[in-house]
Write a structure and sequence with these properties.
The protein is of the alpha/beta class. It contains 15 helices and 14 strands. The chain has an eight-stranded parallel beta barrel with strand order 1-2-4-5-6-7-8-14, surrounded by five helices. The structure holds 2-acetamido-2-deoxy-beta-D-glucopyranose (NAG) (3 copies). The site of one 2-acetamido-2-deoxy-beta-D-glucopyranose (NAG) has 4 residues, from loops. InterPro entries: Chitinase_II/V-like_cat (IPR011583), Chitinase_insertion_sf (IPR029070), GH (IPR017853), Glyco_hydro18_cat (IPR001223), Glyco_hydro_18_chit_AS (IPR001579), Glycosyl_Hydrlase_18 (IPR050314).
Length: about 450
């Protein structure tokens, strides 16, 4: 009993003292929020253009600069856009500018991602197959991270065993990760990787249990489950569904395959997928539009990202606000996905509501946290947001939504557990005696302050 009281008092004192010592510059919760930045977003037109100075590092625990590439002559990391990334030849010094954010935000880790879709798989497959080449890569990676002041490396090989890869990639990727981590340890560098979310990719590409030993975090790319390639409308990132193409399945499968929850990070798309309905469908407008209905094989573009079938949240929210087009908004409860339809245009996407539901699931599974692809397509300028009522409502609605949802979910879950516990203990006497101790302690503090 007295031990419990002393413990309560100890926690109470900690709260009082800790606030005076350090000011946290990051999210006010215990989970990771990993923010990928696609650096080519700087080339988007007008209000779509995103520079490093648009980042708000208080909303992320980790920033991931995407992407660097592989130099197959030297088996080393290379800048993919030297003018944006480096300072040489009057370059804009992206590496330096993003890592400098750590000076102001002491909580922040900044890592460099190598790979991505456009880098393909073949060159990584060849590199990983040779012990000598892996060794050379590991040594040069350490030098590269040190030189540019990064906190670690994020591997975005898409994907081992696929797209020109070979079955041996699974083992070779594991060896590459193991050898990188061995070299990173003495420099305290983080080693993370982005994993594909499909069951077929997971089975083919990853020795999950082995990789989880050496990776600090696994970033699950829980999106691109459906798109115009299906030739029917579908959720980009369904939380649940009747088949295996959904977020819950991916996360549960990874846990089952041996990924520890405290290393597993659930990815969230800050973008949607677009579709074009065939004339026949869009004309019969009396029927409610649905997920799963026929669509053309190519979706439409947004004005900033200009990629068929893809739209950033910042573009989507502007569209939906436009009163001169007739967007209607819907919610699909099976997948927990919002979608919007106007004439022959159809968008599935994520908003604060769908994100909050996903975060709730991730927190119930006790995951390490959330990741976003990518921070540059949130409404980072606040163009869609109502005139600020308070400081919280100025920009980044989805990033703020994620952090809020983490705090709320953890609080909810904690309260549920506490309630269950309370039924077991005889709390009345504890409360009484503890109140006395705290009252005395507060009095003593008050007197001697
Ligand atoms: C804790 O510290 C913050 C930042 O310095 C300050 O704004 C806040 O008022 C403090 N809270 C308490 C309870 O002292
Ligand atoms: C592999 O690297 C070479 C040389 O940098 C490059 O030309 C080629 O496009 C890369 N392969 C793929 C699939 O990207
Ligand atoms: C709103 O929609 C109309 C009709 O589709 C379009 O012409 C206009 O450019 C849009 N305005 C904005 C601000 O996107």
């Amino acid at each position: 009993m007295w031990l419990k009281c002393v413990l309560v008092l100890f926690v109470f004192m900690q709260c009082v003292l800790s606030n005076s010592t350090g000011v946290s510059t990051g999210p006010k919760h215990s989970r990771v929020v990993v923010c990928y930045l696609g650096t080519w977003s700087v080339y988007r037109p007008e209000r779509g253009s995103f520079t490093i100075e648009h980042l708000d590092p208080s909303l992320c625990t980790h920033l991931v600069y995407s992407f660097a590439g592989l130099n197959i002559q030297e088996d080393s990391i290379k800048a993919l856009d030297p003018w944006q990334d480096l300072t040489e030849n009057y370059g804009k010094g992206g590496y330096q500018r993003i890592t400098a954010l750590k000076n102001k935000y002491s909580h922040l880790k900044v890592t460099l991602a190598i790979g991505g879709w456009n880098e393909g798989s073949k060159n990584y497959s060849d590199l990983a197959a040779s012990a000598a080449r892996r060794g050379k890569f590991v040594r040069s990676a350490v030098e590269f991270l040190k030189k540019y002041n990064f906190d670690g490396l994020d591997l975005d090989w898409e994907f081992p065993g696929k797209r020109g890869g070979v079955p041996e990639d699974k083992l070779n990727f594991f060896l590459l990760v193991k050898e990188l981590k061995a070299a990173f340890r003495k420099h305290n560098f983080l080693l993370t990787a982005a994993f594909g979310a499909g069951k077929d990719t997971i089975d083919l590409a990853y020795d999950v249990e082995g990789l989880a030993v050496y990776l600090d975090y696994i970033h699950m790319m829980c999106y691109d489950y459906h798109g115009a390639w299906d030739q029917r409308t579908g959720a980009n990132a369904p939380l649940r569904s009747a088949d295996v193409l959904n977020v819950e399945y991916t996360i549960n499968y990874m846990l089952k395959m041996g990924a520890p929850a405290n290393k597993l990070v659930m990815g969230l798309p800050l973008y949607g997928r677009t579709f074009i309905l065939p004339e026949t469908t869009s004309l019969s407008s009396s029927k409610k539009p649905m997920l799963g209905q026929e669509a053309k094989s190519v979706g439409f573009q947004g004005p900033f990202t200009r990629e068929n079938g893809f739209m950033g949240y910042n573009e989507i929210c502007m569209e939906l606000k436009n009163t001169s087009s007739n967007w209607k908004q819907y919610w699909d409860s099976e997948t927990s996905t919002p979608y919007a339809v106007a004439d022959d245009k159809f968008i599935t996407y994520d908003n604060e509501r769908s994100i909050a539901e996903k975060i709730r699931f991730a927190m119930e599974k006790n995951l390490a946290g959330a990741m976003v692809w990518s921070i540059d397509t949130d409404d980072f300028r606040g163009d869609c947001m109502e005139v600020a009522v308070n400081e919280d409502a100025i920009n980044y609605p989805l990033m703020r939504g994620i952090n809020k949802a983490i705090i709320n979910s953890l609080e909810d879950i904690k309260n549920t557990i506490i309630k269950e516990k309370e039924n077991e203990i005889n709390k009345a006497s504890v409360v009484t005696s503890c109140s006395i101790v705290i009252a005395v302690a507060s009095f003593v503090l008050f007197i001697f302050h």
